[in-house]
Amino acid sequence: MVDSCFQCGAELVAPPALCASCGAVQPFRADLSLFTVAGLSEIYDLDVQTLRTQVFALQKGLHPDRFAHAEPTARRYSLEWSTRLNEALATLRDPLKRADYLLRCQGVDALGEQVKVADPELLMTQMIYRERLENIMAARDLPGMEALRQEVDKAVTKVVQRLKELLAILPCTELEAAGSAVRELQFLDKLVGEIDRSEESLQNV
Amino acid sequence: MALMQIAEPGVAADPHQRRLAIGIDLGTTHSLVATVLSAVPTVMRDHEGKYLLPSVVRYLGGGEVSVGYPAVAAAGQDPHNTIASVKRFMGRGHSDVQTLAGHLPYDLVSGEGMVRLRTIAGEKSPVEVSAEILRVLKERAVETLGGEPEGAVITVPAYFDEAQRQATKDAARLAGLNVLRLLAEPTAAAVAYGLDKGSEGVFAIYDLGGGTFDISILRLQAGVFEVLATAGDSALGGDDMDHALAEWLLREGGGDSADPLWRRQILQQARSAKEALSSADETMVALPPSPGCAALTVKLTRRQLESLILPVIQRTLPACRRALRDAALKLDEIDGVVLVGGATRVPAVRALVEGFFHQMPLTDMDPDQVVALGAAIQADALVGNQREDLLLMDVLPLSLGLETMGGLVEKIIPRNTPIPVARAQEFTTFKDGQTAMSIHVLQGERDLVQDCRSLARFSLRGIPSMVAGAARIRVTFQVDADGLLAVSAEEASTGVRAEVVVKPSYGLNDEEIANMLQDSFRHGAEDVVKRRLSEAKVDGARVREALATALAADADLLEPTERVAVDKANAALAVALSGNDADAITAAAEAVEAAAGPLVQRRMDNALRRAIAGRSIDDLGD
């Protein structure tokens, strides 16, 4: 389907937000995926730098500051597109949120409350990591903290690699495996946050 | 019909008719104005060659006003009519500045709206006082440029709220300036450096002023400035270094340190000595005589000074670490460190910054000028003198959230999120048959409602009666590009809806905002304990609620011995809930759940049987 400008009827290039021929900001399309809004094809293994460049290039044309003197409808469209672009950047730049988003597009809520983490191995790893962090804090062991961080970073890289394989072809066919990888990544993500906070509190005392 | 002259947007119609634009740094202690002359951003000077204008306004009788150095000189003899640091009053109500006013000699007028100051020239609002400062700067610009500036960009602290920004705009209008845009101070500094270097990358802006410290991390890419993180300490600045040195001099001098005049003299000497040691390795400090003590001259080396002020400047590092963490950046990802504020001239500060960031800070711009220069560059671009169109993405200064059970705050949009933004979260009912939900919108970083600032309350009514936890209520926060917040709540099945529009930070001053940030940092561990307890209490109460419902409906499903066990566990939970031990509450709640296991199982079986028998789901609750 080809989109055309609501004002001059010219054909719109993706994403259909601004008309290249008359410059009119188009009515917001809530049905478009975050990838489409950012002008990218749906893919898990994306380059964050490209994403950022793309989103900012679009923001430069669509941000409400550009429509400060425009009529109210155009201002509203600009606000909606700009909001959605910010959401696209925030969601797609993060490997965890990006994977979760792709699964949700397929109707899978991998991080929902209904999902019980049934993987005993993951639970065990969690406990071991947390115990180590507690010991490091008790001993005020900064080198130990750094070693733990490197280990966790490696684990993150491994899970992201697994997700890249599982989500290489979309729609994903191995939803179970992808869902469990997403949960594992969320656990690691939280752990990294805790390591950051713990390290900060050790440094600041 | 005459032919219209059409100019391409962003290109001046005639290169000889360059449009005049100015950038103004309207500071707490001093202000300055800059412009872009022949592509070079330049500060503008007064007749004596000074570019700093002290932000001090003195009202004399007969409609006369003096601004700047003459007003400073008169501050001692005419304190009531000489207004300094008026920036702290901008956009604030009388009650907002009560605590601040205790330290100042001004006569504040109580009443609705923005606070007013009583002077010999009548009641003056902070907007009017600021306008006097802006008027002097505008005159300076008109003289230097030889014409009226077409527009001005004025800088404000990054976390100035809507009311403070509006007050700043009003002051500019009062001074006859056309405000093109208000620009955050750290962003202005980054613009000055970023565009000057024509470079892209991530900049840390280390801003140590007289009384406040701010650290911001920004990314410049393809003409878009993105604020990645901000942090700071509103009670830390160059003044603290002066005080540390003065304390030492007081001890050396051995006089009566309670004598206020002597203390003030010593403080002045400390300030001069600190400034002298920015370039010299040692200096002689003349201590004035005090009652019971002769005049004395002591030698002070830079090394001595540095050991005295080190504890002060080291207090800037936690905020730096926090900003880096918020930006999710490592030290080696920072491409440049920009110094802002006069206190960053102190070599020990530069050394500390260099040591922390593992790189030499950029010092080729005057730290007092850099903010005004950045504002001038943006003003120049906005009137159409430059082709590069900048886009400055603003961020939320403080997190926005909702009150949840147990007096906890659930953050919906974290601070530093680029705006405009919309975020939604689902909540559910706590009690069976609950038909209304109260929505309490909060601002701040702390975990407990009592430690955050209340922005608005409203209720969602008409929720259909359901069992606890069955309703799905979607709460949406939308913040537009001007920082205006709209909150709406909608129940999924019926579509009942309620909403409210609030100004996020009206009535909150930048110091309070910074303090709130700092508090959250300081109280992090304490909050975790409180949060755990609060969560345990909510869970415990929920277990009791569910048990009461189940017993009311199906108590007969329990054997007498089972009933005794359930009652005993339930009583123990009630006792635990009255205490403050999170683990005890959790354990007691688990015990109740275990004791009630048979009841739950049998109720479930019955429900299933009824469902299979073709009864409608609605009956199950009875």
TrEMBL record, chain B:
One Gene Ontology MF term: ATP binding
A Pfam family for this UniProt protein?
Answer: HSP70
Q: Where is the signal peptide?
A: none
Taxonomic superkingdom: Bacteria
Q: Which UniProt keywords apply?
A: ATP-binding, Chaperone, Nucleotide-binding
InterPro entries cross-referenced by the UniProt entry: ATPase_NBD (IPR043129), Heat_shock_70_CS (IPR018181), HSP70_C_sf (IPR029048), HSP70_peptide-bd_sf (IPR029047), Hsp_70_fam (IPR013126), ISC_FeS_clus_asmbl_HscA (IPR010236)
Which GO terms of type biological process are on file?
Answer: iron-sulfur cluster assembly
Q: What family does the entry list?
A: Belongs to the heat shock protein 70 family.
Q: Which HAMAP family match?
A: HscA
Q: Could you tell me what this protein does?
A: Chaperone involved in the maturation of iron-sulfur cluster-containing proteins. Has a low intrinsic ATPase activity which is markedly stimulated by HscB.
Q: Under which name does UniProt file this protein?
A: Chaperone protein HscA homolog
Q: What is the lineage of its organism?
A: Bacteria, Pseudomonadati, Pseudomonadota, Acidithiobacillia, Acidithiobacillales
Which gene carries the instructions for this protein? hscA
